[in-house]
């Protein structure tokens, strides 16, 4: 049973179509990455999952049932735009938000304290929220979305604005929650994190699904046409005709091979050429990164919509 | 789900009650009002209970030689304030300077200088020189006593016996029940006026607070978390109730303080400043207050949802303030003529009903059907406003940056 399932969902506002014919589902125990450029409809989709807005057509299924507000207390939501009551005491705030999700005050308080310890912010507990650093506030809000032990966790850009230490802390927490069988949806445009964390992805642009599936599937549909070379010496080998595109980052070349029936052979000829004029410390043939796939798909989609003209926009 | 509304209201209430601004307002306003009343009381010489004056009469036969002493006796009968008079007759050349000096340095509060009647006048001239202009009560007493003494003397001169004169001049025992009613009416007017302004102030202040707190949540984006579990309607209801409860708490504290202050024995502000509220009046006050508050805070919630910043809200304030300003413009007229055309018309305009109808009831009970009709109109308007506000709120809080124009607003109402 999928935890959440969208079927042919459509939502239009006054001036534009936010989401069109969008379908995907998230199973329990998976980490799902919802990707897309700014304004692509990520937040609109999330809002429909949690009933802030209602789709014009199509259906949203939560926990195997048609959408019902009473199931919302099984959902934890961290919105992209963080918001807390500034003047409120941290513990009061957590208890209040916990109560809104159906906890009683005592349980909410107990869990808040446990979570604050886990998130290493015990010193913030007696303070007013506005006295805290931005990162700390973000952790408070992170805690608030998890207090009621939701089965579906929705995180909109959870790591933005956090330093690497804290980002890792949150990341590890999410990984633990997935192990416990929770479904985690997170929406982001930080592709490196998605690549590392997510089992499944869906890429949307201009409100439409461009691709979706497991990370393996998505990547395997793309040819291994990327080569990375770390070198010292002349970079003249980058002019080789088998190379479609090359960038030289001060001794680290990132190469995209020209389309060919035998990419491995092409890579070998480039390596031979490079060895003749430079010292090579690393040579690797890799699959395209998610970021490259993302950029490629979004750019193609944009071109198509511009040229096609009949796109819904 | 009542539970969510209750949680929102509870949070709103306790956060506000604990805020420094609430405590400051609650203490400061009555202190200022009390101070003002006390100051007024002091300035009008109310505080002084005994006054000492001098009466200077000439000894030239044109003024009755007994006049000074008769006036002295007459003044001694008065209690508010107690007037102690010394008679100086005849004055010497420097009496005036001496009296002036006594007034400046000793306890003399003023002197009355009697001069012989001017040609063509039957009565002597009187010159009253008080220490300051504040001896209004003394001046009244003095005038009255002079008239009494002159009348007695005139009657005696026309041949009446002293006993007859005394009988004639005895104080008349007026049936005072009517006069009592007049006092009560005055007190009712005063308290109606006072409560009108409390209601006015609290509706404006706490109505604006509802709008401001919605904007605050909008800018801090907290509502996006809240909306993930609760409905906009519940959020709005909780807010209106919570903020309203704070307003009620504040009014209750003020009224209790006013009652304590005006209680005899504590700080007496004088009989005309007493706080006289019948229970029925109190019930009407609370009912109209609540209805008025819900009406205006519903309106404020809609405004708050439409505006995206405090500045924008300020511009929209006029919709909220206009009917209230109109009410305070006519309230004097309504108090003095509670059954007049103006009072009737205004008490049937739903946006003015809470204030104006309450004032009418407090001053002079209007017919029951008028109260019923105005209440019905008010309740229907409140329901309409809440419906409107909930619609606007639901869409408005998710919109940022841009103020909606009228067509957009109408479209908002159609969203479900």
Distance between the termini of chain A: 34 Å
As a whole number of angstroms, the C-alpha radius of gyration of chain A is 23 Å
Helix and strand sequence of chain B: HHEHEHEEHHHHHHHHHHH
Going across the biggest sheet of chain A, name each strand in turn: 6-7-8-3-9-10
Shape of chain B: elongated
**Share in helix of chain B:** 55-70%
Strand content of chain A: 25-35%
Write down how many β-strands of chain B occur, each being a DSSP E stretch of 2 or more residues: 4
Find the CATH topology of the largest domain in chain A: Rossmann fold
What are the low-pLDDT stretches of chain B, counting only 5+ consecutive residues below 50?
176-180, 265-274
Q: Quickly count the domains of chain B.
A: 2
> Using DSSP, what is the number of strands of chain A?
14
Order of helices and strands of chain A: EEEHEEEHHHEHEHEEHEEEHEH
- Given the structure, what is the number of helices of chain B? 15
List the helices and strands and how they pair.
The complex is a heterodimer of chains A (313) and B (416).
Chain A: E1 4-12, E2 17-26, E3 31-35, H1 42-49, E4 57-62, E5 65-66, E6 75-78, H2 90-100, H3 105-118, H4 134-144, E7 152-156, H5 164-179, E8 183-188, H6 191-197, E9 200-205, E10 208-214, H7 215-220, E11 226-233, E12 243-248, E13 252-257, H8 263-277, E14 278-286, H9 290-308
Parallel strand pairs in A: 3-8, 3-9, 6-7, 7-8
Antiparallel strand pairs in A: 1-2, 1-4, 4-5, 9-10, 11-13, 11-14, 12-13
Chain B: H1 2-18, H2 20-43, E1 50-56, H3 67-76, E2 82-88, H4 95-105, E3 110-115, E4 125-130, H5 136-157, H6 162-168, H7 177-220, H8 222-227, H9 232-262, H10 279-306, H11 310-336, H12 341-348, H13 353-363, H14 368-396, H15 406-414
Parallel strand pairs in B: 1-2, 1-3
Antiparallel strand pairs in B: 3-4
């Amino acid at each position: 049973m999928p935890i959440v399932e969208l079927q042919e969902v459509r939502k239009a506002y006054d001036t534009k179509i936010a989401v069109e014919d969008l379908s995907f589902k998230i199973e329990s125990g998976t980490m799902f990455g919802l990707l897309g450029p700014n304004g692509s409809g990520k937040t609109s989709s999330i809002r429909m999952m949690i009933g802030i807005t209602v789709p014009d057509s199509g259906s949203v299924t939560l926990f195997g049932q048609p959408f019902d507000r009473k199931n919302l207390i099984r959902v934890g939501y961290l919105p992209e735009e963080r918001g807390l009551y500034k003047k409120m005491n941290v513990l009061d705030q957590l208890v209040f938000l916990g109560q809104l999700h159906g906890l009683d005050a005592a349980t909410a308080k107990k869990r808040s304290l446990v979570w604050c310890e886990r998130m290493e912010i015990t010193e913030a507990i007696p303070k007013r929220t506005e006295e805290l650093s931005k990162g700390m506030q973000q952790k408070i809000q992170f805690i608030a979305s998890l207090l009621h032990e939701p089965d579906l966790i929705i995180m909109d850009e959870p790591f933005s604005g956090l330093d690497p230490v804290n980002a890792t802390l949150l990341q590890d927490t999410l990984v633990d929650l997935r192990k416990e069988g929770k479904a985690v949806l997170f929406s982001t445009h930080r592709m490196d994190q998605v690549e590392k964390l997510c089992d499944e992805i869906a890429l949307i642009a201009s409100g439409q699904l461009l691709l979706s599936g497991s990370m393996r599937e998505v990547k395997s549909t793309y040819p291994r046409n990327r080569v990375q070379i770390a070198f010292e010496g002349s970079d003249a080998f980058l002019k080789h005709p088998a190379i479609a595109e090359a960038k030289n980052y001060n001794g680290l070349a990132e190469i995209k091979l020209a389309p060919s029936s035998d990419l491995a052979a092409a890579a070998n000829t480039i390596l031979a050429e490079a060895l003749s004029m430079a010292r090579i410390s690393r040579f690797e043939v890799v699959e395209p990164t998610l970021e490259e796939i993302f950029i490629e798909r979004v750019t193609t989609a944009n071109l198509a919509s511009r040229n096609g003209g009949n796109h819904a926009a | 789900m009542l539970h969510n509304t209750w949680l929102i209201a509870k949070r709103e209430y306790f956060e506000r009650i604990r805020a420094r601004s609430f405590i400051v307002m609650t203490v400061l306003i009555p202190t200022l009002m009390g101070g003002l009343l006390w100051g007024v009381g002091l300035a009008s010489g109310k505080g002084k209970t005994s006054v000492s004056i001098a009466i200077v009469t000439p000894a030239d036969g044109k003024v009755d030689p007994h006049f000074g002493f008769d006036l002295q006796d007459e003044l001694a009968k008065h209690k508010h304030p107690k007037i102690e008079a010394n008679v100086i007759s005849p004055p010497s050349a420097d009496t005036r300077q001496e009296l002036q000096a006594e007034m400046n340095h000793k306890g003399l509060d003023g002197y009355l200088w009697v001069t012989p009647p001017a040609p063509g006048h039957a009565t002597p001239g009187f010159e009253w020189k008080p220490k300051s202009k504040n001896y209004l009560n003394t001046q009244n007493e003095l005038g009255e006593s002079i008239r009494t003494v002159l009348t007695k003397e005139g009657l005696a001169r026309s041949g009446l016996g002293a006993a007859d004169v005394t009988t004639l001049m005895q104080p008349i025992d007026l049936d005072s029940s009517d006069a009592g009613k007049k006092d009560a009416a005055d007190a009712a007017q005063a308290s109606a006026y006072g409560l009108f302004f409390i209601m006015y102030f609290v509706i404006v202040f706490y109505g604006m607070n509802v709008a401001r707190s919605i904007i605050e949540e909008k800018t801090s984006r907290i509502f996006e978390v809240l909306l993930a579990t609760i409905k906009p309607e519940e959020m709005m209801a909780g807010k209106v109730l919570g903020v309203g409860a704070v307003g009620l708490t504040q009014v209750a504290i003020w009224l209790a303080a006013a009652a304590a202050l005006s209680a005899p024995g504590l700080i007496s502000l004088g009989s005309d400043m007493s706080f006289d509220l019948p229970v029925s009046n109190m019930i009407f006050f609370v009912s109209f207050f609540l209805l008025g508050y819900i009406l205006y805070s519903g309106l404020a919630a809609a405004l708050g949802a439409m505006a995206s910043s405090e500045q924008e809200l300020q511009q929209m304030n006029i919709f909220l303030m206009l009917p209230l300003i109109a009410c305070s413009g006519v309230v004097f007229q309504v108090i003095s003529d509670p059954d007049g055309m103006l009072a009737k018309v205004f008490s049937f305009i739903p946006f003015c009903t809470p204030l104006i109808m309450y004032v009418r009831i407090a001053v002079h009970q209007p017919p029951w059907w008028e109260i019923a009709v105005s209440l019905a109109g008010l309740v229907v308007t409140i329901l309409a406003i809440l419906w409107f506000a909930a619609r606007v709120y639901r869409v408005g809080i998710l919109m940022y940056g841009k103020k909606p124009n009228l067509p957009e607003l109408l479209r908002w109402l159609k969203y479900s």
